[in-house]
Backbone:
């Protein structure tokens, strides 16, 4: 009886312990052609994670569809859960997002457009993720 009670308490303790997932934005190439994703960082807004990753004024991912190691670009923003406030902060830190393949190029230039792109790709019930999936016809 004591072993069962101890085991039950242990499992209950582990289950109720809060553990925050990692926050990140991923860009995934779901198409057949190579995709270039370029984020121009806003120099007037401080964001340590973006500042660490940028080369010059931007972060560039070259996403190759049939190479698992190059199919996804990921930006890590620390521990925690995504919410509207986090998404707004990230949107303000990015001046523009350019997504380009052999046939198309789309540029999200305004804060409103960037926020909408991030918000529309914010999915999940409990452990929400922010994953932007790009196919050959982009978002069609």
Residues:
């Amino acid at each position: 009886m004591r072993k069962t009670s101890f085991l039950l308490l242990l499992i209950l303790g582990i289950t109720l312990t809060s553990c925050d997932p990692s926050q990140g934005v991923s860009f995934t190439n779901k198409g057949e052609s190579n995709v270039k994703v370029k984020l121009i960082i806003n120099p007037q807004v401080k964001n340590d994670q973006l500042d660490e990753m940028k080369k010059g004024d931007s972060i560039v991912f070259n996403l190759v569809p049939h190479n698992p190691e190059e199919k996804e670009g990921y930006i890590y923003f620390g521990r925690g859960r995504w919410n509207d406030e986090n998404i707004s902060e990230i949107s303000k830190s990015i001046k523009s997002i350019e997504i380009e393949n052999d046939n198309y190029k789309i540029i999200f230039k305004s804060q409103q457009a960037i926020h909408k792109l991030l918000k529309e790709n914010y999915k999940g019930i409990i452990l929400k993720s922010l994953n932007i999936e790009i196919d050959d016809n982009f978002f069609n």
